[in-house]
Amino acid sequence: MTEWRLQLKIKEVQILKKIELLAPAGDLDKLKMAIDYGADAIYLAGEAYGLRTASKNFTDEKMKEAVEYVHERNKKIYVTMNIVPHDLDLVGIEEYVQKLVKLKIDALIISDPGIFSVIKDIAPEMEVHLSTQASATNSLTIKFWKELGMKRIVLARELSLEEIRKIKDAVPDVDLEAFVHGAMCISYSGRCLLSNYMTGRDANRGDCAQACRWKYRLVEEKRPNEYYPIVEEDGGTFIFNSKDLCMIEYIPQLIESGIDSFKIEGRVKSQYYVATVIRSYRIATDAYYRGEYTAELAQRLLNEIKKVSYRDFTQGFFLKKPNEEDQLYENSSYIRDYDFVGIVLDYDKEKKMAKIEQRNRIFKGDEVEIFGPEDGFKICNISQMINEKGEEIEVANHAREVFFVPLEEEVNRGDLIRKKIS
Predict the structure, then answer these.
(1) Nearest Cα residue to 77 out of 128, 46, 41
(2) Minimal CA–CA distance to 275: which of 22, 20, 34?
(3) Backbone phi, psi, residue 338, to 5°
(4) 357: which strand partners?
(5) Three-state DSSP state, 259
(6) Interatomic CA distance for residues 152 and 142, integer angstroms
(7) pTM for the structure as a whole
(8) Mind listing the pLDDT tens digit for each residue in 247-296?
C-alpha cells in the first residue's frame, strides 16, 4: 500500500472510531454524575501527586469505589500524577503506584520523566499518558515519548487545529487528547509561577491560588503612587484573565483534526456543571457520528451550557492565535442565569409524585426545568411541596432537604432541576 493510501486509511479509521469523552471528577458524587450523563472515561486524583488540591480528591477507599462504579459500566478511569515534583514529593511514590496498579486503574497521567521511570519500573504494562503540563507541541516530542512507551499525549493548549492535524499525520499511532472546554491558564500549558510568587502556593504542585484572576494596576518603580492609566474600570484591570474555552460549535473540526479524546476541565466545579457540560458534548458528538450535527444543534447546546455558571467563551488557540478579544478585562466573575435547585431521587408512576433532594432554595409556584442525560428538558410548575412528615411547605431552604412534588410528566432518578434567576 502506498504511503498516501495508508495515511488516508488511517484517517478513515480515526473518524470512524468514536471520540472519547473524558470528564473531570473532584469527588465520588461528581464521578457518578459524569458517567451517568455520558462520559466515556474519568480523570481524577488521589490524595497525592495531582494538580488540584482545591478539589476533595479520592481516598484509597473512595478510589476503590470509583473504579468499581466506572468498570461496571465498561468505562475507563485515569489517575493524575502530573505535579512537577521535588525530591521530597517522591517519598513513598513506589507504594502509591503499586496501590493504583492493584486497584486496576486504566492509565496514569504524568508530566515528569522521573515519575514516568518509576511507573515503568514497577508496572511496565501500565498505560501512561503525558499530561498537558509537559507542553507537547510538536511531532518530534511526541515521537520521543512514544518510543519510551507513552500511549497517549495530552496536547499543549497552545496548538491550532491545523497543527494537531499535522501531528496526527506524522505520528498516527499515538492517541491525542485535547482540552475542549473549561478554564484556561495564562501560562504555557499550566506552568505558572505567579501563584507561587504572590502567595507561596505552588501551582505546579497542585495548589494554585488563581492569581491570574486578580485585579492589577501598573506602577513605575520611581513613582510608587502613580498608576498607569490602563484600567477598564475604577477597580483595576484583569490583564491576565482569560475567557473560558468552549468548542461545542466546532465538533466536526475537532474530530477531523485527529484528536482521539475530548477533555473537559473542571475537577473543582459542581455536579451540575459536570452533568450539563458532559451531556452537551455527548449529544453533539453522537449527532456528528449519525450525520445529524448542525449549526442549529450546536447553538442550542451552547445555550444549555450557558445555564451553568460560566465566563465568556473563547476558542483558545484552535482557530487563531488569541488576542485581546479572548481576555476578560472587566472582571473575573462568573455569569449565572440559572440556579441548580434539586435532584430527583425517585418517581412514583401511580401517584405521579417526584421525590426531590434540594440543592438551592426552591419555592412553591416556581417554574423549573428538569433534565436527564437525554436531549431536551421538561418545563414544570412546582404547584405543591410536601415534606417527609407529610406537611405542605412553601419553600425548601434547608441543605439537601427532601420533599415531594406532584408532576404529571414522568421524571427519572438522577434528573437535575434548575430554575431561571429572576
Answers:
(1) 41
(2) 34
(3) -130, 150
(4) 343, 402
(5) coil
(6) 9
(7) 0.83
(8) 999 999 999 999 999 999 988 889 999 999 999 999 999 999 999 999 99
